[in-house]
TrEMBL record:
Purpose of the protein: Involved in cadaverine and putrescine tolerance in stationary phase. May facilitate the efflux of both cadaverine and putrescine from the cytoplasm, reducing potentially toxic levels under certain stress conditions.
Membrane association type: Multi-pass membrane protein
UniProt keyword annotations, A-Z: CBS domain, Cell inner membrane, Cell membrane, Membrane, Repeat, Transmembrane, Transmembrane helix, Transport
Span of domain CBS: 311-369
Lineage: Bacteria, Pseudomonadati, Pseudomonadota, Betaproteobacteria, Neisseriales
Domain CNNM transmembrane intervals: 27-226
CDD domains: CBS_pair_CorC_HlyC_assoc (cd04590)
Localisation: Cell inner membrane
Designated name of the protein: Polyamine export protein
Length: 461
């Protein structure tokens, strides 16, 4: 039979208060009633624990999708609670602490005497054993049922759990509003004193998106090509036009005074879709022509001048500092798909087409006719074109980063920056466990490298 007076004495000792006990009380509790009360406390504690983790870990993006596409207004309530979590945290702590104290009181006053009665013939250690059994029963039940299980469920399905418990939690906040206001106010005052922000920061960075994409690829949600496609889209803002343009030495152009025989010979030798037309040299570009338009006129007329307005089009000039995203926007607003790239001294450094820009995004989907820049020879060796962008090398070799990469954009630039000299054949350096050796140069330019797996970094030569 439950000793009510003993419970009151424990309560008095715990909270340092005095309560006048009646001489006779009708309140009695047997072991079954005590266990039922403990079960109720476990359920309350499980609800509070589950609410705490679910509301805290529910992802903002998924909640926004649930609210916008699914029309679930409970998701908006969760978002609002995440923005101002003070009241919610206060209710959680009040609930957990109150339940823990009550469970201890019930266990000590009702369950321990029951075990004590069972072990009354055990001698002097019977009372100690009864206390230990009570502690193990109550604590084990709370750890397993009121803590581990609900929290694991909340971690597995945080958004689904959050939208289901947010309304009951809002009701508890309303019921306990005076107490919540006091504790929340004191906590806010302390945070303000130490100048600590209590507003949840949900700023999404490109690194966050990369992490989500990588997680999707590892989980098999995204195919490898889709993974590369998304990464390449974000690379467009970081990479400049010089990383994908055709450099100056590869530009095929006509002089405005070239005759039809010269033009046809150049077009036969270098079959491009577009050719620049210059007044003497590349520094005096007057426009460009499209091959099919010029050839059509050649079929109709034997002698066509390159300055003819029917074939000559105005060239679009862009600075070499533009990102690929900016180039794409420029093509969109101008209606062009071909541009001349100039540096700060107004010197032509290359040309770029819409296909060049899209090749960064689509990769091999638009480069099926071109030789790949990275060719794997064996399990541990690669042939790499000197003009290969760093991002492609990093992806192929699984390298996290290159040192001071803001100073160069290609693997050739990395070699020149690291060697600190004009490169020549057989020059090499080792970085990130790979040996980068120059095997071919052309006009002081690194044309091709041999990359092989090595040990730790060594000094270059």
């Amino acid at each position: 039979m439950f000793d009510y007076k003993k419970v009151v004495r424990i309560f008095q000792t715990t909270f340092d208060v005095k309560i006048a006990l009646p001489k006779h009380t009708p309140f009695f509790m047997n072991i079954l009633e005590a266990l039922l009360l403990l079960c109720l406390l476990i359920v309350i504690s499980a609800f509070v624990s589950c609410s705490e983790l679910a509301l805290a870990s529910a992802r903002k993006i998924k909640l926004q999708v649930m609210a916008k596409d699914g029309g679930d207004t409970r998701a908006l309530d969760v978002l609002n609670m995440q923005q101002q979590p003070g009241s919610f945290i206060t209710v959680v702590q009040i609930g957990l602490n109150a339940v823990a104290i009550l469970a201890g009181i019930v266990g000590e006053a009702a369950v321990r005497p029951y075990f004590g009665g069972l072990l009354e013939n055990a001698g002097s250690w019977g009372s100690t054993a009864a206390s230990l059994l009570t502690f193990a029963l109550v604590t084990g039940s709370f750890i397993l049922i009121a803590d581990l299980m609900p929290k694991r469920m909340a971690m597995t399905h945080p958004e689904a759990v959050a939208v289901r418990i947010v309304r009951p939690m809002m009701f508890l906040i309303f019921i306990l509003k005076p107490v919540v206001w006091i504790f929340d106010g004191m906590a806010n005052a302390i945070f303000k004193l130490f100048k600590i922000s209590t507003v949840r920061q949900e700023q999404l960075t490109s690194e966050d998106i990369y992490a989500v994409v990588d997680a999707g690829a590892q989980a098999g949600v995204l195919k490898q090509q889709e993974h590369y496609l998304i990464e390449n889209i974000f690379d467009m803002q970081a990479r400049t036009v010089t990383s994908t343009m055709s450099t100056r030495e590869y530009i095929a152009y006509f002089d405005k005074n070239d005759g039809s025989d010269t033009v046809l010979a150049i077009m036969s030798e270098k079959p491009h879709n577009k050719f620049l037309v210059c007044d003497g040299d590349l520094e005096r570009v007057i426009g460009y022509i499209e091959s099919h338009t010029l050839l059509t006129l050649f079929l109709k007329e034997k002698d066509v001048r390159l300055t003819d307005k029917r074939v000559l089009r105005k060239a679009l000039f862009i600075p070499d500092t533009l990102s690929l995203y900016d180039v794409l926007e420029t093509f969109k607003t101008s209606g062009e798909d071909f541009a001349v790239v100039v540096n700060e001294y107004a010197l032509v450094v290359g040309v770029v087409t819409l296909k060049d820009v899209m090749s960064i995004v689509m990769g091999e989907l638009v480069n099926t006719e071109e030789e790949p820049q990275i060719i794997r020879r064996t399990e541990d060796t690669w042939l790499v074109d000197g003009a290969t962008p760093l991002a492609d090398v990093m992806r192929a070799l699984d390298i996290e980063e290159f040192p001071n990469s803001e100073n160069y954009e290609t693997i050739a630039g990395f070699m020149m920056y690291s060697l600190r000299k004009i490169p020549k054949r057989t020059d090499f350096l080792v970085y990130a466990g790979y040996k980068f050796e120059i095997i071919d140069t052309e006009n002081l330019k690194i044309d091709q490298l041999l990359v092989s797996k090595q040990g730790e970094d060594v000094v270059s030569r």
